[in-house]
Amino acid sequence: MNVAVAQDANGPRVCLCVDDFGLHDGINHAVFALLRLQRVQAVSVMVGGSTWEQGARALRRYDPQQLDVGLHLDLTECPLPPMAKQTHRHLLLRVYSRSLDAHALRDQIDAQLDAFEQAMGRAPVYVDGHQHVHQLPMIRDALLQVIAHRYPVNPPWLRSTRSPQAAAHLDLRTQFKSRIIDLLGNHALSARAKRIGVQQNARLLGVYDFRGDAASYRRRVQYWLSAAEDGDVLMCHPGLPSHMQDAIAAARHVEFAMLLAPEFEAMLAAAQVRLLPMSRILANPR
């Protein structure tokens, strides 16, 4: 069953986006399994990841009309040399103290876009950020400057982290994290992006603290689908076991099992959600 076209044509159109492709082989294998079932419409790639280049060779064979492939801008986990790996907290301190080298930052963004284009043979359809760094002070300005310079026509869309409305039946930690991510720079990024004609998704679903069992993740997915509005992105982080250390490995396994299960298809139908690439949603606004 093709879940991308099976639901009510009047229901909300949502893009299911997998983050962290290329970080390790377990994530890549999970992505390709979900792609075979047409459960994924966007893949965010980390060009500094250990399995990016081999994964890109397979990823580029997918029809760009059916799958958005974007750059998952990474300044913490595995940025490209000469930028060193750093914690998210350290990066936050540097951007809010304005101590990050703006020239080096633009060079890093350009280098990651170069690596993407070299491997994929085309520009990214969108750009977002690992740990949402693309919206932070300094980084959002550098990113938009690079995008305006490199892609004056048909620029990539940018991920908005605008949070959905709070829900009484959703745990407070999940609501709090979603709101904090939004407050860390979404409004400023969206205002600047709009001024230069860069499109964005409506809201970001899928934010949680990576805790809990399969039942708690199922409840979250049900809420996100029931609350979905046209043009939302549903972010996910599925993965299979890997020899590499991964701080959210357990959550990745839970997410993969949920997205792979026939139950997920039934949840989509119940919520009347249609899964489509965001580029197609943005090209045909309601």
From TrEMBL:
Keywords: Carbohydrate metabolism, Hydrolase, Magnesium, Metal-binding. The keyword Membrane does not apply. CDD domains: YdjC_like_3 (cd10807). SUPFAM superfamilies: Glycoside hydrolase/deacetylase (SSF88713). It comes from the Bacteria. Its cofactor is Mg(2+). This is ChbG/HpnK family deacetylase.
